Protein: Pentapeptide repeat protein
Organism: Hyella patelloides LEGE 07179
Amino acid sequence: MKTQELLRRYKKQELDFSGINLHSANLKKANLTRINLTRADLSDADLNNADLSGACLKQANLTNADLNHASLVGANLTEINLIGAELIGIDLSGANLSGADLRCANLHQANLSNADLTDVDLSGADLTNADLTNAKLAGTDITVADTKGAKISKTSLDKGVRTQSNTSHHWVSWSGQ
């Protein structure tokens, strides 16, 4: 599906786009609140300044996507692939990222307050100056990320319930290339 088709259908209040292929899509500044993009391929997509608050991106592939300054407040991002994604200044407050893969993601100045980061892979992630206040970190090793200047107050490993032994990798690259 082409980006313009998605936006046209969304404007008509269609919300379920599960499994859609939007590899390299330009959704810069798009308002896609409450959209369902479960298992969608948004690898290399430009979602800079997009609003995906309350959206469902469960098991979606956002490898190398640009989500700088995007809003995903309260979004369901369980088992999402954000490997190498640009997430500078993103608002993920209250989002569920349990089982997410954030290896080498750039979360500089990200708002992760009250987020569920249970069983998240943060290997090589940049959390410089990020806000992790009240985040749930059960099963997540934050020491493998750069946390210089990060707010980690009121964060506790016992706030989450470890549900998996390893990060889930149910997602794949669906771009067909």
